[in-house]
Write a structure and sequence with these properties.
By secondary structure, this protein is α/β, with parallel strands linked by helices. About 35% of the residues lie in helices and about 10% in strands. The chain contains 10 helices and 10 strands. The chain has helices at about 55-65, 90-105, 125-145, 160-175, 205-210, 225-230, 235-250, 285-290, 320-330, 350-375; strands at about 45-50, 70-75, 110-115, 150, 185-190, 220-225, 260, 265, 275, 310. The strands form 2 sheets. It has an 8-stranded parallel β-barrel with strand order 1-2-3-4-5-6-7-10, surrounded by 4 helices. Strands 8-9 form a two-stranded antiparallel sheet. Helix 1 runs parallel beside helix 2 (about 90-105), helix 3 crosses helix 4 (about 160-175) and helix 4 runs parallel beside helix 5. The longest helix has 26 residues, at about 350-375.
């Protein structure tokens, strides 16, 4: 037999035994609570509607270059039906890029304006059903983009009564919101100028819809040109005060986080929707200064809340009109010195773009003229 090999190990003397202390257990530092975005500091926000031509990201860049700290966009073509349920969805990679860039630029609130074809008050079942689906799609796209608000015109009652239209609009929004996730995104009903059978030109009707949708936290977006065209004289101090009193009574000023801030080409009570450059229309610069500095319309100043936003939807007749209207709002608000810097010379409308638009307009006018002549034969 082979020799047994024995290895002798030196004995180690244990000199200290540590008792387990729960405090010694590794505990990772808790993830800090995310800070609210800069647009939720309660401060007043000013911006305008910017174009998504070429992609949603372009709207953010335009708002930044125009000196805005808030913006409104369309989520898709506003004058075409999307083509069926699920159509027009935004790819998550694109939506994530949009959300990230928006956070970098500190732009907000982000307001989505719904498709113009949507008629939530329609008495025709097929049109109303299509409108409900299209509005649902707007909400889905708004959620993807991280929107704070989705603004919608309530629609027209057609051959039915106005009260029936109001009830239909309330029901349509409820249907569009069925099983929709609670994201904090808020629906805002916009007042109208009173053209045709459109509902919502009377503030009482807007208030009735907001009240009927209180469970969904629906609010209102008020357009100054629409207010003026539908007969609310907001030009002078007393007229503005009486209008604010009515808004507070039938809607609640706290339920109006967004104003479309537009001058009007139409006289008081003209019931036609025609926007004009700030200070150059029938409402006038003094009225906008009064509104933008009014203590009842100012920012909340409360951390964690979106400040009230004043967004221009003014025409861009010449390159630079967009930048000038944003600058006018900052100046009339008394915040010119603290306004974000605009990029000198930037405009969403270029000289070449204006030329192309004029050519298209001329071609369309010629086509319409030929069609009219053909019909007369």
């Amino acid at each position: 037999m082979p020799e047994e090999i024995v290895t002798h190990m030196a004995e180690e003397t244990v000199t200290h035994v540590s008792a387990f202390d729960p405090e010694d257990e590794y505990r990772p530092d808790p993830v800090p609570e995310p800070l609210p975005p800069v647009w939720m500091d309660g401060s007043l926000r000013i911006g305008m509607h910017t174009s998504i031509a070429g992609g949603h990201l372009n709207a953010l860049e335009s708002a930044h270059k125009l000196g805005c700290n808030a913006l409104q966009i369309f989520s898709a073509n506003p004058r075409m039906w999307a083509g069926g349920p699920g159509a027009g969805r935004i790819a998550e990679v694109d939506a994530a890029a949009f959300r990230g860039r928006r956070e970098q630029l500190g732009l907000g609130p982000l307001v989505i304006h719904a498709n113009y074809l949507i008629n939530l008050a329609a008495p025709q079942p097929m049109l109303r059903t299509r409108s409900i689906q299209a509005f649902r799609d707007e909400l889905v796209r708004g959620l993807a983009l991280g929107a704070d608000f989705v603004v919608v015109h309530p629609g027209c009652h057609g051959d039915s009564r106005a009260a029936q239209g109001v009830a239909a609009a309330i029901d349509s929004i409820k249907q569009a919101c069925k099983r929709f996730p609670d994201s904090g995104m808020r629906i805002l009903i916009e007042n109208t100028a009173g053209m045709g059978t459109a509902i919502g030109s009377r503030l009482e009707e807007v208030g009735e819809m907001v009240s009927g949708l209180a469970a969904l936290n629906v609010g209102a977006c008020l357009d100054t040109a629409h207010l003026f065209a539908s007969g609310y004289d907001i030009r002078g101090e007393s007229g503005l005060e009486s209008t604010l009193d009515l808004i507070d009574r039938v809607i609640g000023l706290e339920c109006v986080p967004v104003f479309h801030t537009n001058d009007s080409k139409i006289a008081l009570g003209g019931r036609v929707d025609r926007h004009e450059h700030i200070g150059e229309g029938k409402i006038g610069a003094a009225a906008f200064r009064r509104m933008l500095t009014h203590p009842r319309l100012g920012a909340s100043g409360v951390e964690g809340l979106v400040g009230r936003a004043f967004l221009a939807e003014t025409p861009i007749d010449d390159p630079g009109d967009d930048r000038k209207n944003v600058a006018a709002l900052w100046e009339l608000a008394g915040l010119k010195d603290s306004a974000p810097a605009a990029e000198k010379g930037y405009s969403m409308l270029t000289a070449a773009g204006k030329k192309r638009a004029a050519e298209i307009q001329k071609a369309e006018a010629s086509k319409k003229k030929r069609e009219t002549k053909k019909e007369k034969r």
